[in-house]
């Protein structure tokens, strides 16, 4: 008699799941979904994009929206997942831990559907140990700087509370680098050393603060700050193995996509706010992000793969562009829901002007045609 051993699903995407994502694109559906699961958050972090007036396009803010609780929240989330059939779901907020009871029910069901889930939290409240046993789930904790900065910026989610709430668990750590953090050359290295030494930490990943177009705040990195930072990045990986960093990622930080249409991640994800109907566009940051200064870790990660060679001169970027073009056509036929970046921009007809002649005024060409038509009709 032979026995077989069941293999537990991986928490991470494997090659076959990447191929499944490609198939999703070709059939007209983005493979990623992001949901702001609640509008509530006990933190008031400076620079938080979710609560800026422009995040949802200016008509409303996250706090203005309706959100949901209990069974209705679970069912609305599952309905959205079944509608889009994503490979990967990001659960953000607000603060997702304010919906712990609902997530206790929701997260195992997402895993049973074969969906990989990333939950991003401040760890302001205890993270259930049972979540660590859910296949395909990763929990990421946002820790913005060393205690002297973080505890002021993100109270009540202080270092002491975070360390208490992640004890005995397995989490990732995410840092958004702001200008204050690059003024001291050793600051970031101290941060990476601290979190690398923690047994609870699987990986560390970083973003740089991404401003909105026209923004001028103390969170933003100056041009000189960016140049110096990006030179240092490639050297971190050898010193801090838990840090997700490479030369190609550092290069992508230095040369991000010029606009959302050129952003691979923006093309891959459909994003919903807390009322489950308002879309966050053109990417998870919303509003009008200054793509020239983009430091979004997801965007940079995908962008770093664009120049990876597949066969001969064919690169990942070529494959993605061609696949999106095919998927957009198939999606229009199937009437699937796609990001704005999949749609071709509407070309505006130029307002041609009739050349003025003596005794005649200049007027738009369209008016000239209409006038000529009327004169011929009479």
In words, what does this structure look like?
The model is unreliable at 1-8 and 345-378 (pLDDT under 50). It is built from 12 helices and 9 strands. By secondary structure, it is α/β, with parallel strands linked by helices. The protein has helices at residues 15-26, 70-84, 100-112, 147-153, 159-166, 187-196, 223-239, 247-254, 264-268, 297-303, 316-334, 365-377; strands spanning 32-36, 88-92, 116-121, 137-142, 171-177, 201-208, 269-272, 309-311, 314-315. The longest helix is centred in the last third of the chain and has 19 residues, at 316-334. Helix 2 (70-84) packs parallel to helix 3 and helix 7 runs antiparallel to helix 8. The chain folds into 2 domains: 16-342, TIM Barrel (Alpha-Beta Barrel); 349-378, no CATH class. The radius of gyration is 24 Å and the shape is globular. The strands form 2 sheets. Strands 6-5-4-3-2-1-7 form a 7-stranded parallel sheet, sandwiched between helices.
